[in-house]
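Forwarding these from the shared drive since the link keeps breaking.
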Amino acid sequence: MNPVNQQIVLATPSARMGFPTFPKSIQRRIFDFYIQGPAVLPPPKDSDERQVLILVCKEWQGILESTPGYWNAIDFAQQAAKLRPNDLIRLTECFLSRSGNNVLSVRFRDVLQSNVGRHVFESVVRPHAQRISFFSCTVTKETLRLLFGWNPVRFPMLRGIDVGVIRDFDEPVVSSLVVGGSLDITGFQYAAAPRLRAVVLRILGGVHPDDMRLSWGRLTRIDLADTCVLVHKFMKIARECVFLERGTFCIDFTRYFGGQPTRLRMVLIPRLRSLRLRLVQPSKDGVLFGSLRAPVLEELCLEREEIGQGIRDMVIYETLLKGVNPNLKRLVMAEYTIPMTRWFVPRLNRSPRMVYQRLDGVLRSCQNLTFLFLGSGVFIHPLDLDRMATGDFLPRLERLGVSSVSGWDIIWMVQRRNLASRLPEFPASGPSSSPMARNVRPVALNRLRLCVMGCGLGEADVQKLEDAGSMLALTHGFLLKPIDIADARNPF
């Protein structure tokens, strides 16, 4: 027998017995593809990848248990509250010993509200706080005060937190009202966590403007999407964010704390590249939009919540866009609106037409966009579509998400634009005094997401749109989302 073949035959039984012939480093690379996510406590019986691999053979068990990277992220699941404290502490200490001296990522999912969770925190997590680089929990204000208030834990390696503050349903309503000093996050200030850079705060019950005294000036990422703050509080935070790169904020325009005037100083965020704003009733006072400057901003998402207004004022967005980077690449505008009967203009041949938003100023303000997404209920006027087709508006646009009543106006616009992109020269439309009235050849769209909001939209209509979208042959695809609205004559 050939020596090589003999070697293969002899190696096969040992491989089947669970003793691989390749190095441990190669096995770890294979395990890296299989093991996803943190180590869960208590471990699931059937779905935890680590437990499955450990049961294969002794060698695999040794590799798993001796690789700290598989144990440095621990997730305390909700069922952990049902265990006895000693059992959970023993499991936690076992997992932490396998993590070696690596930095840790620790997440509590509603466990800190139980006595078991607090016992584990005090007995196990607090002694290892010097290794924790990421910490996440959901607590009540009282639990937050007990664990991180008067006797805060020091986190010298902490770089990110995700803290949710909820109401304790056993407490009276009066104690859950937003008052000054009700929120204590002393444990995450500079003295306790000097390396903190990323913060996610989810305070669903609201927060008093005098609270949240974090060291905003050293943070690079802030997410307050679920923590509504007043305009002046947002501007105060933004004024300190000299290193902020990614920010998400929810801003309430309906009231002002302490009767402060609406005059705002100019605020510059020099390093901000991605900004997402949830705006609550911004039509109450749009002075904020002219006071914000972000010279290197690349991505902007605007989510607007208004009450009872069918036609939205888009001029406030024009004011905001004048203060940000003219080379803005991505823009998302979501209005969270559902078309109502009164939003329709008079019929033409018994076919209702939707009221168009005034978007020409917005489109003119960000000519370098490569990605534009307009939420459901925001409609582009036919004249603006014509200028997009010729390249007068958004000549560099590659991906588009938009709403339409029929869908065909968008399909035809994309057809014209992509045809124009293949012409050797294409003169842009518009007055000769316009800076865009030059030979402009638009970039071809390569992806389209079309939301069709029509009355009496049938399967045949949807199929025709699907066929027309497929005929566009877009490089990254065409997605159609039909929404059939009740006839305009009938109220909802």
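-- next protein --
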Amino acid sequence: MSASTAARSARRGLGTGAKRGILAGVIVVLIVFVVLGTRVVSNDAADAGADEGFNAETFGADRFPGVQEAIAERAVAADELAQAIAADADAAVEEYAVPSSGGPVFSVTFTGTVGEGQSGIYDVAVDGLPDDLLVRVQTGPAINGTELRDATGDIVFGEFTNQIEFQNAAAALNDEMKVQVLDSVDTASLEGSTVTVTGAFTLINEAAWLVTPVQFEVG
């Protein structure tokens, strides 16, 4: 074959059969990559994976008893705590409180007489406290705040995927508290009653405590 003939053959390229063979090979390689990169998940496995996500109802039921016990163990008598805060708030925070993003959270216990209520939040007159210290307790139906989540220091943001889950954890504990603590209390008829309360509050105003209960006894 002459040099010019060889050059013309090269310009014509591969034959139809060769091209088809190369194309088939490429398709086979692509199929292999797809098969190797695909993970088959059964319906059972998918359901199990869904269960691994945050479940507010389960979280509240599982964690509230531990939170309740820890707050009760940490709780300081209201008169003692009020004296400590009045004498040196920073020292009281250091000794008794758990830090949180919303402020220091104290655990407290007291017995007092229930006064006027509004939207499920009642004033409680507690002997031994300064006259200018307002103590209130929330009884629902809406329980707000993150005190139960934050009071022990054991529930931290790192346990959750995002801020929404972290906030939902606080709401789940509040809801579970209502079920386990307040459902047995006639919260509509508390005025004039003597109550013993153990709970937690965030120190925002030294002259006003809004307590979220974990134990609530009437009489």
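DSSP finds eight helices and six strands in the chain. The longest strand covers residues 105-118.

- D.
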